[in-house]
Amino acid sequence: MTRNTAGPxxxxxxxxxxxxxxxxxxxxxxxxxxxxxxxVTPATVRAWETGRTNPRGRRRAAYARLIGCAGHRxxxxxxxxxxxxSTMSPTEPGTGPSMDAFTPDAPTRDADAxxxxxxxxxxxxxxxxxxxxxxxxxAPVPQPRAGLTAEEAYxxxxxxxxxxxxxxxxxxxxxxxxxxxxxxHAFRTAWQRWPEVARDRDPAGWVRAVAYEYAMSPWHRxxxxxxxxxxxxxxxxxRALFEALLGLPPSYRRTLLLHDAxxxxxxxxxxxxxxxxxxxxxxxxxARATLAERLPELAGSVDPGGRSTVLQERLGALALAEExxxxxxxxxxxxxxxxxxxxxxxAALCFGVLLVSTTAFTLHTAPTQYEQPLAPxxxxxxxxxxxxxxxxxxxxxxxxxxxxxxxxxxxxxxVPRIP
Length: 419
Fold this sequence. Notes:
By secondary structure, the protein is mainly alpha-helical. 54% of the residues lie in helices and 0% in strands.
């Protein structure tokens, strides 16, 4: 017998968990179908697509071939009706409208976008799907090339995405101050974790997710400055759209903005909102139906694609018409992030020193053995008087003395006689 001296076969490369889910849904495959084909349970497939575990051995190779990442990358299917998750046509990332187009200085930034080199994951390169009718292809969000320093790459990302992201936050919250605060918080967090953000497949999406989470936090209602929304637009049509948008639940509002305004596909929208694809589709349909009840132009359009186009135009016009505060310069945000990080570091050090000092003082002053505490003095009442013989009177003492001085005359002591 000949022994195989070759080492183990290299593992089949797999994309990120989010990309695995997108590839599976692009092929109109459900978790149950993939689980039956690979020979595992649907819960295992769900764990693979959330990043908790990874397939191994022959199951890894079978899973890679099934979702289409072992060889060529298939183009996403035009519909997800076969999965039963939605009846609308999803748009792939980069094929829908971008919120950067809502900013007045978008044409001037296109030249800066072309000057940057895109550094995407080789496993993530896939042919872009054709944009649906009424949607213009959005310019890809540039990622910094290797020649740029961390500060230059961060500033480039901030300059390209901060204005449009601020307008998104205003449509999401209806509060201008909170919009700017959310964007600053997101980019400060991004600078503190810049190595992770720079290696991310979509840095702009990473920052956007942090900004959305901060803006939707219910704790802002406790702050006096953010309790009430700003004044709505004066134009009746824009006012109706603005009030209808703020009347939606926060999860519905976020799903609607990400899909119909930002231009994310349904799987990407579900992944960013941490929901399943059917849940995201249900939120999107309910949000559109609620807006259609208040907006006549949406009520007349029955086609989901037509509603998406109308919403895209109306949201773009509303975002451009509203005056939002300009974000601060990128160097100021970086300096603020470093200042906040320094404050937290000093606070942690001071707390550690205080904890160590308190522990040392306690150990030094604490007794080495237990000493029972003395009870405090207290007046005791209800004790009975002392008993016993009474004190002798002078007459008794005189009688006692006379008895002791006299001889006793009595019978003689009997002495036993022994024979």
